[in-house]
Write a structure and sequence with these properties.
single chain; mainly alpha; Glycosyltransferase; 2 domains; 17 helices; disordered N terminus; Mae1
Amino acid sequence: MGSSDSHSKFSTDKQDASTLVWNPHVGVWWLHTLVELSSLFLRPLLIISVYTKYFCITMAHHDMRVHDPNMDRDSYNLDNLSTQRNHHESHRPNSPSDLMSGASTDIESGTSTPTHIKDANQHPSFDIYDPNRPKLGLRQRMKHFTWAWYTLPMSTGGLSLLFFAQPNQFPGLKTIGLVIYIINLIIFTCVTTAMVSRFFLHPGTFAKSMTHPREGFFLPTFFLSVATIITSTDRYAIPKDNSNLVWAVQATFWGYLVVTLILSIGQYSYVFAAHSFSLTTMMPTWILPIFPIMLSGTIASVIAETQPHVAAVPIIVAGLTCQGLGLSVAVMMYAHMIGRLMQAGLPNREHRPGLFMCVGPPAFTALALIGMAEGLPEDIDFIQDGTFINVGMVRLMATMSAIFLWALSLWWFGIAAVAVIQSPPKYFHLGWWAMVFPNTGFTLATISIARSLGSKAIGWFATGMSIVILSAFAFIFYSHVRAVISQDIMYPGRDEDVEDH
């Protein structure tokens, strides 16, 4: 019996063991458990490996770029832009989630550019800095003909005034200035015609251009061009003995003053209500809306000496008022500009020529003060009590104030010049004309100071400044024409109708 029991027990154990090993339900359970444990440990490793691959490839591409140690803190995204973006389009890896899912990445929507378009409907699907980018027709390009184009006639008109005011004249110099004045009238007419064509060819762009957070600030350049035309017309085209034309100039002055006063109040009121700008985005273009009303003083300084006494005094008083308003607002803007430079550093190298705009307000104020003092009648009775003011003392104070303000322009000129030389712009922008017009006012102020002091040395120094201005004008004009032909401007993303960094 013992043997039988032992055999029975052995058979039972063998049967149980067989059941434990070959039971299909138990086998499936163990297999499922093994798979779960494997996935639990392998999934994190897989994710880590994918992210590591993405990080390594991205950093490798990042380190391959060569950085200029002298580059400003904002120029990184702009340096070798075309090469960088083309390189990313062909080599940039997908994001980790796309590597796992097989989805593709939209490179264009994730790449920061120095001039990017916030409106997705206008965003080009190509690199706007690629030399082989598609060429556009004239109708398409006219959509990007911005208010900033008036910086061209504005600067040309200033150049004609500079030829007229030269302290060291030679035969034919004023004739050259007259030719430039006529050319400026043609340029102004062509630019105005092109602007009107833009608004007709592309309905809705008129309102957008005036309310745009960047292009809108260039609207005052139209009135600045008008100011140079008024002043140049008085210098070159108005006979001093023609009373009808003299009164026409006076009426034009008062009309210009009223319109620009409305502009200075209205545009700033709109900007305060509709836009929100941070201090780090402050640019000298914020000064432009106050520029036209400020040039009322400059116009007054030119036309006052040709006006009858009964009209000259009100013109000078109004001009002094507007000049004071413009300079006061500009000084307040200077505080913000210096704060921006302290906090965020110099602007992107493409915008550094705009720093020369800060040269303009004190320079044109110095020019206007001396000109208005020179235009005062000798026998002026301000308070109507028979007591005449000492015009000589007024002119002395005007000269002293002009020298005071000239030094401020010199300081801003030095800051802007060092910034541009340190990191010159790579692409042409219409903002380059800021290197001409404000510096023209700076040179004219120097000429006025030289005449007031009777200094030939300062006069020759002003002549040297004029030669530099003429050279800068020629270079920028050449660059402007070349940019139009090569479609570097009047092209999507390349003009002032896009919001910048």
